[in-house]
Amino acid sequence: MVGQPVPGMASKGFGRWKKLWWLLYWYPGFVARNLTHRFPAIFSGPTILVKRGPCATAVHSLLDTMITTCQETCPFFTTQLSSHNPCPVYGVAGTMGGAPEYIHVNHKDAQLFVVSLLIASGVSLQNAETVALGLVQADLRGVESHGINRLPSYLARIRSGVLNPKAEPTLTQVTPVVAQVDANNGFGFPAAHLGMKTAIEMAKTFGIGMVSVKHSNHFGMSAWIVKQAVDAGMMSLVFTNSSPALPAWGGKEKLLGVSPIACGAPGREGSIPFILDMAPSVAARGKIHKAKRRGEKIPGDWALDAEGRPTDDPVKALDGGVMLPMSGPKGSGLAIMMDVFSGVLSGSAFAGGVTGPYDMSKPGDVGHFLVAIKPDLFMSMDEFRSRMETLYHRVIGSEKMEGVERIYFPGEIELLTERKRLVEGIPFVQAEIDALNKEAEILKTGRIPVSL
Ligand SMILES: NC(=O)c1ccc[n+]([C@@H]2O[C@H](COP(=O)([O-])OP(=O)(O)OC[C@H]3O[C@@H](n4cnc5c(N)ncnc54)[C@H](O)[C@@H]3O)[C@@H](O)[C@H]2O)c1
After folding, report:
1. Which of 131, 140, 146 to mutate to test the pocket of ligand 1 (most atoms within 8 A of CB)?
2. Is 277 in the pocket of ligand 1 (CB under 6 A)?
3. Ligand 1 center to residue 314 CA distance, Å?
4. Measured between alpha carbons, how far is 129 from 131 in angstroms, rounded to an integer?
5. Are 70 and 77 in contact (CB under 8 A)?
6. pLDDT tens, 152-179?
7. Distances in whole angstroms, Cα of residue 110 to Cα of each of 19, 105, 119, 292, 377
8. Measuring from atom 1 of ligand 1, which residue has the nearest CA?
9. pTM for the whole thing?
């Protein structure tokens, strides 16, 4: 489970275990080679593999605690089973002092901080709260690529005059089940929020509601809009287009957006809803920006550099490089689908015409496509929720492939991460906190409250 911390565990410092690691023996196995090869920046120090063999129960328990700690604190921790060893063998992040030190921020403090910066930039209180909600939810769900660290680029766009902080989205009802929102070049968050709110209202009466949003900007993580529908007991589709980053399959020109396809359905009350939110690329471009911010390498299969060569350097990937579509023509096909439904249909930019959130040259002109569907159209709500529960248990209870500890439902890892971060706070590295405080300095607002 590379890159996924195990949620729901107690937080402990990484450093306290460093000395204990030296008690364990070195194992130059295939897992170590695989990990160090994939994440050279993280595994700059020696990698240790902990062999969980026929040893005393106390040692097993110690190893389990260490593994849990590593899973929480090292973003690239992995566990694997050895194919040529009857005992489970764990690969442990061998950073030996190179692990990033995280600073934690309470989600309510993060929300207030974002609101204060936005209000100081001319955004209304209501819209500032909606933008902050979308960004902080991304951080809570572990989607840091689309969290509050996006703020400096958004504020730079306001200062450059290409994003209107005072714009209010306007709504036009087209048919009883179809509406259009014009974001008027304001933030994408309030426009998408209004769009989904309207779609939900239409679906309550007519079973379905469809909203097209035009002249918008980046709306961050799609899952927060899917969640808006899930919280109202609705199924949903949430599409957007975005600035060119991907070639069409077979091409080398940046043409299509890394435009996420997202959808959701409510489960039983209090259980795990279905929330799928995925970019059509191998990884979201925001993850490359995050690696750049944190001084980390990226896996070699995410992007090409300007010369068309695979690269593990986020700077080279962003500087004239392209993202790689997931599953070749299928990924680029999904990116085209997002452009058809969000760009062509809405009247917004399309075919490479959208301006990205890090580009200060002109308005984004992003399009979104939002659909809400009432789940009890063909059966009672209770029956629908119970069928979703059956699907959930069937999926997570299915037979596991070798080396997999647990099967998750789409959106489940993010929900478990959110539950953990609501209690423990959101982890940031110092450079990210500094970048946010620099904005606070410019706008003369308070610094972000942190705890170690
Ligand atoms: N607004 C924009 O223009 C824009 C553009 C690109 C990406 N994004 C956002 O970037 C975020 C990250 O996208 P991504 O494609 O890198 O996401 P990802 O690869 O981390 O996850 C994609 C989906 O797979 C599921 N998933 C991941 N690991 C799983 C596992 N082990 N078992 C079961 N399900 C699992 C997740 O729940 C998620 O629904 C998304 O929130 C997306 O909305 C936004």
Report:
1. 146
2. yes
3. 19
4. 6
5. yes
6. 999 999 999 999 999 999 999 999 999 9
7. 34, 6, 14, 22, 39
8. 220
9. 0.80
Q: In what order do the strands lie in the sheet with 178-182?
A: 170-175, 178-182, 208-216, 366-373, 235-240, 261-265, 274-278
Quote the number of domains for the chain: 1
Dist CA 214 CA 202 (whole Å): 19
Give the atom of ligand 1 at the shortest distance from the alpha carbon of 284: 16
Tell me which of 222, 261, 400, 416 to substitute to probe ligand 1's pocket, judged by most ligand atoms within 8 Å of the beta carbon.
222
Q: What is the pLDDT of residues 342-360, one digit of tens each?
A: 999 999 999 999 999 999 9
pLDDT in tens, 118-141: 999 999 999 999 999 999 999 999
For residue 84, the model assigns a pLDDT of 35
- Domain membership of residue 19 as a residue range: 15-92
Instruction: Indicate whether 41 belongs to any domain.
Output: yes
Residue 68 lies in a domain: yes
| pLDDT of amino acid 100 | 66
Q: Is residue 103 situated within a structural domain?
A: no
Query: What torsion, rounded to 10 degrees, do the Cα atoms 86, 87, 88, 89 define?
Result: -100
Which residues are known catalytic residues? 218
279 CB less than 6 Å from ligand 1? yes
> What is the pLDDT at residue 252?
81
Is the confidence at residue 36, as pLDDT, over 50? Answer: no
Answer whether 396 contacts ligand 1 (Cβ < 6 A). no
Segment 14-37 shows an average pLDDT of 38
Minimum mean pLDDT range among 68-77, 208-217, 290-299: 68-77
Q: Is residue 26 part of a domain?
A: yes
The answer to whether the CB of 180 falls within 8 A of the CB of 452 is no
Q: Which tens digit of pLDDT belongs to each residue from 379-429?
A: 999 999 999 999 999 999 999 999 999 999 999 999 999 999 999 999 999
